[in-house]
Amino acid sequence: ATAPTVAVTAAAAAGVAGTAVVVAAEVEMREAEERDFEGLVELFEAHECLCVLGKEEGDSQLERIGRSYVEGVKQGEFSSWEACRRIYASKGSKLWVLERHGQVVGSVGALCPPAGSEDEERQRMRGGVESIELVRMYVHASCRRVGLGARLVRTLVDHACTLGARNVMLTTPCVNKGGIDFYQRQGFDTNEVFEVHDFEVPLSLMLLQLQLQPRQLRAQPEAGEVLVRPADAAAADGGAE
């Protein structure tokens, strides 16, 4: 199969050319397998945004909330590979990883409503997949700023378009300003802000949405862009959830 084409701006290509070529040549993106499970959990634990922000800002309460969230996921979705696989078992759901030198350095998941659920029935009655949820979006700190985050999002969006989805949605803490800025650069808009009361204090979350139009992968660059194969360079600047 032909390697997928990724687009980077001329400025980005010039600014990180040396690093981007090395990273893109060494990073493989594929669907997650059982052998990736330990790496997925380690990536999640080390890069969950509330834990990272809590440490960086010296906010022990924020860090505790992050740790509480991490432990909850480890007792559920990440309790075992089988539990993780069940989460992504519904039609259209997928979990991808970025692998570099045998290490999982990135991930993103696409969730569709489980078969038989009210949401799945409602979408079926409306003629197909209405919404895909973006989850588990992480890029290892050593591999940032070379376009891997944008590559993860683009892969998920292309998958959503293939399914005929109308939008991609995600939630992230409002304090995750760097992540929100990244998603907005990818075309996401704020849909709503709401609070959850699952922790020691209320936590504000932002729901972001990307409206989709039926399309095919671009074969020609837009103005100011240079088309580059993944083996030659990375995509534009990325980030993590």
Over the alpha carbons, how many angstroms does the gyration radius reach?
18 Å
What does the main sheet amount to? Answer: 7 strands, mixed
Output the structural class. Answer: alpha+beta
Strand adjacency order, main sheet: 2-3-4-5-6-8-7
Number of strands: 9
Task: Write the element-wise H/E pattern from the N-terminal end onward.
Answer: EHHEHHHHEEHEHEHEEE
Average the pLDDT over all residues and give the rounded result: 81
Distance between the termini: 30 Å
Uncertain ranges? 1-19, 216-240
Shape: globular
Relative helix content? 25-40%
**Approximate strand percentage:** 25-35%
How many helices in DSSP terms?
9
Provide the fold topology.
Layout: E1 6-9, H1 10-15, H2 17-26, E2 27-31, H3 37-47, H4 49-57, H5 60-75, H6 81-87, E3 94-100, E4 103-111, H7 118-125, E5 131-139, H8 148-163, E6 167-173, H9 177-185, E7 189-196, E8 203-211, E9 225-228
Parallel strand pairs: 5-6
Antiparallel strand pairs: 1-9, 2-3, 3-4, 4-5, 6-8, 7-8
